[in-house]
Amino acid sequence: MAPVETESLEGNRIYQVTGRELTQIAEISAREAVKMCREERKKTEKREQSNADKVKRTKKLLSDYRRLKREIPEKEEFTESEKVEKRWAFLRDLMGSAHINSQESVVEKEEKRRAENMYYINRIERAIETYREECETSKKPEAMRCYREVYEYYIAEEEKTVAQIASEECVSEKTVYKDIGNACKIIAVYLLGV
């Protein structure tokens, strides 16, 4: 049975509903509220997971920095000896087999990989530099400590352990891990966006 309009008071309509109809309205409202709450919780969990994934990815990129840096010589191009070696390999392929394109594709893949590595190195260096500037302007005294810890752990040429960093900074290893984690959350924004 549909609600029946009984009267109108100052432009507002007043309906007469039975107890059963009121119960149905309450049930539907409760179901919709629970549904919206679950959807909001899923969105929040997804956002938190995305942020956690960004921090993990940032830590992975930072930990790969030294390897990428060692792999890439100061110049972005092949060295002369690499060029000569590639040319000879190309000529051997030309003379010895019909796999001409295979050597060309190897060279192209190496050049592409090298370009990607240079891109990541530049992104990491830019993010670390931006984080350093942020820490220098911060009013918190521990901000620069966090920067130094991240720099020593991931970026500096001489690799240091958490114990060494903790000793130098006169803090516990637990604090170093916490500082690095917090710093990586900020650096993730510079590296991977919001």
UniProtKB/TrEMBL annotation:
Superkingdom of origin: Bacteria
Q: What is this protein called?
A: MerR family transcriptional regulator
Outline the segment boundaries, as ranges, of region: Disordered: 38-57
